[in-house]
Amino acid sequence: MKLGLISLTLMFLVEGTSPASYEAAQVQKPAKVPMLIQLTEDCIIKPDEYGHELRWNDIRYMLNQETDVSGLEKGKTFAEVSFTVSGNVCPGYRFQNGDATRAEIGTPISQVKGYDERFRLFVGDDLYEVMDSPDAKTLGDLFDVAGKVEKVTLEYTKVSQDTPYEHERYSVDFSEQDSAQFAESFVNLDYVPFEEMRKKRSHNRESEYLVRFYLHDNSSISILYWLDVNAFTRGDGDYTIKRLVENYVGRLQKVESDSKR
User: Fold this and answer.
1) What count of other Cβ atoms lies within 10 Å of the Cβ of residue 247?
2) Please, are residues 235 and 197 in contact by the beta-carbon 8 Å criterion?
3) Strand, helix or coil at 212?
């Protein structure tokens, strides 16, 4: 279990643009900057500190390193990585479909059997999951977990004020009935892009929890939740979500080790 804030930090990949001047726009017709120019532009620094990301069909995917993938099967291989971004582009580069931050050019991109490819993909042998999607309306459109949730777990990390690198983990499993109710409410929530939600996230560390969904194939997904503002990183919670979280907060138990369940 990694610190929620570290996972959250890895998700902040900000893209910049280099706007043309107003005068130039009047002289010539707007034109898309050729990829070659973007890649070979002379600059001093070419960042290599990106998180593991893939762009495909205008959807942002991030590597899920925490889940058990032994129960997942590869489906059809339908594409491959066309460009590796890390260390090869100047600041302000705009991600293109087929770009990966770290996966090598030619790495196969495959479906995950049983899941919508807008939610999960295999990039080589690594599992990537959606971060943001332009077409999603609900969290169920973003995360293809409806009818697949085995259990919901609420997790909390307590960080020592004196020694920030030391922390204690607490966890509690929802009952089968409450897991089903929580999952049903979750997939029906309105989807809000990550960049919008982070503006309203709570800065109260004590209000930050991690909600983990264990699926029928033993894989899992997790998402940060702030109780005081009743919000996830991809949308606002509803009455059911807040009620269930509040009901289980008092039942959290200290986790003695990070051994697999």
Assistant:
1) 14
2) yes
3) strand
